[in-house]
Amino acid sequence: MKSSDLEKIIRNALSEDIGRGDITTTATIPGAVSGQGIFLVKQNGIIAGLELLDTLFKIADPELKFVRYFEDGSPVNHGQVAAGITGNAGSMLTLERTALNFLQRMSGIATMTGIFVEKIKHTKAKILDTRKTVPGLRTIDKLAVKLGGGTNHRVGLYDMFLIKDNHIAVAGSITKAVQACKKFKSLKSLQANIEVETTNIEEVKEALNCMPDFIMLDNFKLDEMTKAVKLINGKCLIEASGGISEDTIKAVAETGVDFISVGALTHSARALDISLEITTM
Protein backbone atom coordinates (compact mmCIF):
# COMPACT_ATOMS: atom_id res chain seq x y z
CA MET A 1 0.00 0.00 0.00
CA LYS A 2 1.35 3.43 -0.92
CA SER A 3 1.81 5.66 2.14
CA SER A 4 0.14 8.50 0.23
CA ASP A 5 -2.99 6.37 -0.32
CA LEU A 6 -3.10 5.44 3.36
CA GLU A 7 -2.67 9.03 4.49
CA LYS A 8 -5.46 10.18 2.18
CA ILE A 9 -7.85 7.59 3.64
CA ILE A 10 -6.91 8.58 7.19
CA ARG A 11 -7.24 12.32 6.56
CA ASN A 12 -10.65 11.83 4.94
CA ALA A 13 -11.82 9.79 7.92
CA LEU A 14 -10.59 12.38 10.42
CA SER A 15 -12.21 15.22 8.49
CA GLU A 16 -15.48 13.32 8.30
CA ASP A 17 -15.61 12.78 12.07
CA ILE A 18 -14.03 15.91 13.52
CA GLY A 19 -15.32 18.46 11.03
CA ARG A 20 -15.19 21.94 12.62
CA GLY A 21 -14.03 20.46 15.93
CA ASP A 22 -14.86 18.08 18.79
CA ILE A 23 -17.23 20.29 20.78
CA THR A 24 -17.86 17.75 23.56
CA THR A 25 -14.19 17.19 24.35
CA THR A 26 -13.40 20.90 24.07
CA ALA A 27 -16.21 21.73 26.48
CA THR A 28 -15.53 19.05 29.09
CA ILE A 29 -11.73 18.98 29.15
CA PRO A 30 -10.31 22.49 29.43
CA GLY A 31 -6.57 22.85 28.98
CA ALA A 32 -4.01 20.09 28.63
CA VAL A 33 -4.74 16.92 30.56
CA SER A 34 -2.31 14.00 30.30
CA GLY A 35 -3.76 10.57 29.85
CA GLN A 36 -2.99 6.99 28.99
CA GLY A 37 -5.05 4.49 27.09
CA ILE A 38 -5.09 0.82 26.22
CA PHE A 39 -6.70 -0.91 23.25
CA LEU A 40 -8.42 -3.80 25.01
CA VAL A 41 -9.37 -6.89 23.00
CA LYS A 42 -12.76 -8.27 24.05
CA GLN A 43 -13.06 -11.10 21.54
CA ASN A 44 -10.69 -13.75 20.19
CA GLY A 45 -9.55 -13.06 16.66
CA ILE A 46 -6.80 -11.70 14.43
CA ILE A 47 -5.62 -8.15 15.04
CA ALA A 48 -5.23 -5.91 11.98
CA GLY A 49 -4.85 -2.16 11.64
CA LEU A 50 -2.30 -1.33 14.34
CA GLU A 51 0.20 -0.02 11.79
CA LEU A 52 -2.53 2.17 10.33
CA LEU A 53 -3.30 3.53 13.82
CA ASP A 54 0.36 4.41 14.28
CA THR A 55 0.14 6.56 11.14
CA LEU A 56 -3.22 8.02 12.18
CA PHE A 57 -1.90 9.26 15.53
CA LYS A 58 1.25 10.70 13.94
CA ILE A 59 -0.90 12.65 11.49
CA ALA A 60 -3.48 13.84 14.01
CA ASP A 61 -1.26 14.55 17.04
CA PRO A 62 2.46 13.79 16.75
CA GLU A 63 2.83 14.30 20.51
CA LEU A 64 0.86 11.13 21.22
CA LYS A 65 3.02 8.08 21.88
CA PHE A 66 1.53 4.88 20.46
CA VAL A 67 3.01 1.47 21.26
CA ARG A 68 1.98 -1.77 19.54
CA TYR A 69 2.15 -4.99 21.56
CA PHE A 70 1.28 -7.24 18.61
CA GLU A 71 2.14 -7.30 14.92
CA ASP A 72 -0.72 -6.99 12.44
CA GLY A 73 -1.96 -10.45 11.49
CA SER A 74 -1.30 -11.91 14.95
CA PRO A 75 -3.92 -13.94 16.85
CA VAL A 76 -5.27 -12.18 19.94
CA ASN A 77 -7.46 -13.35 22.79
CA HIS A 78 -10.15 -11.80 24.93
CA GLY A 79 -8.61 -9.68 27.68
CA GLN A 80 -5.30 -8.96 25.93
CA VAL A 81 -4.04 -5.43 25.35
CA ALA A 82 -3.21 -4.89 21.70
CA ALA A 83 -1.61 -1.47 22.04
CA GLY A 84 -1.11 1.47 24.39
CA ILE A 85 -1.13 5.22 24.00
CA THR A 86 -0.03 8.16 26.17
CA GLY A 87 -0.27 11.92 25.78
CA ASN A 88 -3.03 14.49 25.62
CA ALA A 89 -6.26 12.93 26.88
CA GLY A 90 -8.35 15.32 24.80
CA SER A 91 -6.63 14.19 21.60
CA MET A 92 -7.26 10.56 22.51
CA LEU A 93 -10.96 11.21 23.02
CA THR A 94 -11.23 13.09 19.73
CA LEU A 95 -9.46 10.33 17.80
CA GLU A 96 -11.05 7.38 19.63
CA ARG A 97 -13.89 6.56 17.25
CA THR A 98 -11.91 6.97 14.02
CA ALA A 99 -9.13 4.78 15.40
CA LEU A 100 -11.54 2.09 16.58
CA ASN A 101 -13.51 2.14 13.34
CA PHE A 102 -10.36 1.23 11.43
CA LEU A 103 -9.07 -1.27 13.99
CA GLN A 104 -12.37 -3.06 14.61
CA ARG A 105 -13.29 -3.35 10.93
CA MET A 106 -9.87 -4.49 9.75
CA SER A 107 -9.58 -6.99 12.61
CA GLY A 108 -13.07 -8.31 11.85
CA ILE A 109 -12.19 -8.87 8.19
CA ALA A 110 -8.87 -10.50 9.10
CA THR A 111 -10.56 -12.73 11.65
CA MET A 112 -13.25 -13.90 9.24
CA THR A 113 -10.63 -14.53 6.57
CA GLY A 114 -8.57 -16.56 9.02
CA ILE A 115 -11.57 -18.77 9.78
CA PHE A 116 -12.07 -19.57 6.08
CA VAL A 117 -8.34 -20.14 5.52
CA GLU A 118 -8.17 -22.55 8.45
CA LYS A 119 -11.05 -24.64 7.08
CA ILE A 120 -9.28 -25.36 3.78
CA LYS A 121 -5.63 -25.51 4.87
CA HIS A 122 -5.50 -29.22 3.96
CA THR A 123 -6.18 -28.37 0.29
CA LYS A 124 -4.35 -26.37 -2.36
CA ALA A 125 -7.16 -23.80 -2.61
CA LYS A 126 -6.59 -20.19 -1.62
CA ILE A 127 -9.16 -17.71 -0.34
CA LEU A 128 -9.77 -14.68 -2.56
CA ASP A 129 -11.47 -11.39 -1.75
CA THR A 130 -13.70 -9.48 -4.18
CA ARG A 131 -14.54 -5.88 -5.13
CA LYS A 132 -17.46 -5.90 -2.67
CA THR A 133 -15.74 -3.40 -0.38
CA VAL A 134 -16.71 -0.14 1.28
CA PRO A 135 -16.33 2.60 -1.37
CA GLY A 136 -13.12 4.47 -0.69
CA LEU A 137 -11.79 1.80 1.69
CA ARG A 138 -10.87 -0.98 -0.74
CA THR A 139 -7.16 -0.65 -0.02
CA ILE A 140 -7.80 -1.07 3.70
CA ASP A 141 -10.30 -3.89 3.28
CA LYS A 142 -7.98 -5.87 1.00
CA LEU A 143 -5.03 -5.32 3.32
CA ALA A 144 -7.10 -6.81 6.15
CA VAL A 145 -7.87 -9.89 4.02
CA LYS A 146 -4.17 -10.37 3.36
CA LEU A 147 -3.35 -10.01 7.06
CA GLY A 148 -5.91 -12.72 7.76
CA GLY A 149 -4.13 -15.13 5.44
CA GLY A 150 -6.20 -14.57 2.31
CA THR A 151 -5.13 -13.64 -1.22
CA ASN A 152 -6.09 -10.44 -2.97
CA HIS A 153 -8.00 -10.77 -6.24
CA ARG A 154 -8.01 -7.87 -8.70
CA VAL A 155 -7.91 -4.46 -7.04
CA GLY A 156 -10.19 -2.81 -9.58
CA LEU A 157 -11.42 -2.85 -13.14
CA TYR A 158 -8.01 -1.85 -14.46
CA ASP A 159 -5.69 -4.69 -13.41
CA MET A 160 -7.46 -7.82 -14.70
CA PHE A 161 -9.96 -8.83 -17.35
CA LEU A 162 -12.97 -10.50 -15.71
CA ILE A 163 -15.63 -11.40 -18.24
CA LYS A 164 -18.94 -11.78 -16.42
CA ASP A 165 -22.40 -12.83 -17.61
CA ASN A 166 -23.43 -9.34 -18.71
CA HIS A 167 -20.22 -8.89 -20.72
CA ILE A 168 -20.95 -12.20 -22.43
CA ALA A 169 -24.56 -11.23 -23.13
CA VAL A 170 -23.56 -7.93 -24.73
CA ALA A 171 -20.53 -9.31 -26.60
CA GLY A 172 -22.55 -12.19 -28.01
CA SER A 173 -20.73 -15.22 -26.58
CA ILE A 174 -17.92 -16.34 -24.33
CA THR A 175 -15.73 -16.89 -27.36
CA LYS A 176 -16.29 -13.38 -28.74
CA ALA A 177 -15.71 -11.80 -25.32
CA VAL A 178 -12.45 -13.68 -24.68
CA GLN A 179 -11.15 -13.01 -28.18
CA ALA A 180 -11.91 -9.29 -27.77
CA CYS A 181 -10.04 -9.17 -24.47
CA LYS A 182 -7.04 -10.98 -25.95
CA LYS A 183 -6.97 -8.53 -28.85
CA PHE A 184 -7.23 -5.53 -26.53
CA LYS A 185 -4.54 -6.96 -24.26
CA SER A 186 -2.19 -7.35 -27.22
CA LEU A 187 -2.89 -3.89 -28.64
CA LYS A 188 -2.31 -2.20 -25.28
CA SER A 189 0.61 -4.46 -24.29
CA LEU A 190 -1.09 -5.27 -20.99
CA GLN A 191 0.14 -7.89 -18.52
CA ALA A 192 -3.36 -8.44 -17.08
CA ASN A 193 -4.78 -11.95 -16.79
CA ILE A 194 -8.07 -12.92 -18.42
CA GLU A 195 -10.78 -14.66 -16.42
CA VAL A 196 -14.20 -15.74 -17.68
CA GLU A 197 -17.28 -16.54 -15.62
CA THR A 198 -19.19 -19.73 -16.39
CA THR A 199 -22.47 -21.06 -15.00
CA ASN A 200 -22.63 -24.60 -16.44
CA ILE A 201 -20.50 -27.32 -18.02
CA GLU A 202 -21.27 -26.26 -21.59
CA GLU A 203 -19.97 -22.78 -20.86
CA VAL A 204 -16.87 -24.31 -19.26
CA LYS A 205 -16.23 -26.25 -22.47
CA GLU A 206 -16.56 -23.09 -24.57
CA ALA A 207 -14.33 -21.11 -22.21
CA LEU A 208 -11.72 -23.85 -22.18
CA ASN A 209 -11.49 -23.75 -25.97
CA CYS A 210 -10.58 -20.04 -25.68
CA MET A 211 -7.80 -20.74 -23.17
CA PRO A 212 -8.21 -17.86 -20.69
CA ASP A 213 -5.93 -17.67 -17.64
CA PHE A 214 -8.78 -18.38 -15.21
CA ILE A 215 -12.21 -19.97 -15.43
CA MET A 216 -14.71 -19.01 -12.75
CA LEU A 217 -17.28 -21.61 -11.70
CA ASP A 218 -20.15 -19.45 -10.52
CA ASN A 219 -22.80 -21.04 -8.29
CA PHE A 220 -21.92 -24.57 -9.38
CA LYS A 221 -23.26 -27.49 -7.38
CA LEU A 222 -20.53 -29.73 -5.96
CA ASP A 223 -20.98 -32.56 -8.45
CA GLU A 224 -20.91 -30.15 -11.39
CA MET A 225 -17.88 -28.40 -9.93
CA THR A 226 -16.05 -31.72 -9.65
CA LYS A 227 -16.88 -32.48 -13.31
CA ALA A 228 -15.63 -29.04 -14.35
CA VAL A 229 -12.33 -29.46 -12.46
CA LYS A 230 -11.74 -32.79 -14.19
CA LEU A 231 -12.65 -31.31 -17.58
CA ILE A 232 -10.29 -28.34 -17.19
CA ASN A 233 -7.58 -30.70 -15.93
CA GLY A 234 -5.01 -28.03 -15.09
CA LYS A 235 -5.21 -26.24 -18.46
CA CYS A 236 -6.05 -23.02 -16.62
CA LEU A 237 -6.62 -21.89 -13.05
CA ILE A 238 -10.04 -22.38 -11.50
CA GLU A 239 -11.96 -20.06 -9.20
CA ALA A 240 -15.10 -21.15 -7.38
CA SER A 241 -17.56 -18.38 -6.54
CA GLY A 242 -21.10 -17.73 -5.42
CA GLY A 243 -22.57 -17.81 -1.93
CA ILE A 244 -19.83 -19.94 -0.40
CA SER A 245 -20.06 -20.05 3.41
CA GLU A 246 -18.15 -21.44 6.37
CA ASP A 247 -20.34 -24.53 6.16
CA THR A 248 -19.69 -25.24 2.48
CA ILE A 249 -16.15 -24.03 1.84
CA LYS A 250 -14.38 -27.24 2.91
CA ALA A 251 -16.32 -29.33 0.40
CA VAL A 252 -15.75 -26.74 -2.34
CA ALA A 253 -12.01 -26.72 -1.71
CA GLU A 254 -11.88 -30.50 -1.82
CA THR A 255 -13.17 -30.53 -5.42
CA GLY A 256 -9.70 -29.39 -6.50
CA VAL A 257 -10.31 -25.73 -7.39
CA ASP A 258 -7.36 -23.35 -7.11
CA PHE A 259 -9.18 -20.36 -5.63
CA ILE A 260 -12.39 -19.65 -3.77
CA SER A 261 -13.72 -16.09 -3.75
CA VAL A 262 -15.78 -14.98 -0.76
CA GLY A 263 -17.50 -11.60 -1.00
CA ALA A 264 -18.66 -11.85 2.61
CA LEU A 265 -15.12 -11.22 3.83
CA THR A 266 -15.48 -7.53 3.07
CA HIS A 267 -19.22 -6.94 2.78
CA SER A 268 -20.42 -8.88 5.82
CA ALA A 269 -17.52 -9.27 8.27
CA ARG A 270 -18.48 -8.40 11.83
CA ALA A 271 -16.22 -5.88 13.56
CA LEU A 272 -13.97 -7.38 16.23
CA ASP A 273 -14.87 -6.17 19.71
CA ILE A 274 -12.06 -3.84 20.81
CA SER A 275 -12.31 -0.82 23.12
CA LEU A 276 -10.08 2.10 24.03
CA GLU A 277 -9.90 2.54 27.81
CA ILE A 278 -8.58 6.01 28.81
CA THR A 279 -7.47 7.22 32.22
CA THR A 280 -5.76 10.40 33.38
CA MET A 281 -2.15 10.42 34.58
Total of helices: 11
Beta-strand content bin: 15-25%
CATH topology of the largest domain: TIM Barrel
The quaternary state of the protein chains shown equals single chain
**Terminal Cα span:** 36 Å
The first-level CATH class of the largest domain is given as Alpha Beta
Summarize the structure.
By secondary structure, this protein is α/β, with parallel strands linked by helices. It is built from eleven helices and twelve strands. The chain has helices spanning 3-18, 23-28, 50-60, 89-119, 138-147, 165-171, 174-188, 201-210, 222-232, 249-253, 264-267, and strands at 34-41, 45-46, 65-68, 75-76, 81-88, 126-128, 161-163, 194-198, 214-218, 237-241, 259-261, 274-280.
Report on this structure:
There is one protein chain. This protein has 281 residues and is an alpha/beta fold. It has 2 domains: 3-111 and 269-280, Aldehyde Oxidoreductase, domain 3, CATH 3.90.1170.20; 118-267, TIM Barrel (Alpha-Beta Barrel). It contains 11 helices and 12 strands. The strands form 3 sheets. It has a 6-stranded parallel sheet. Strands 3-5-1-12 form a 4-stranded antiparallel sheet, covered by helices on one side. The longest helix has 31 residues, at 89-119. The mean pLDDT is 97.
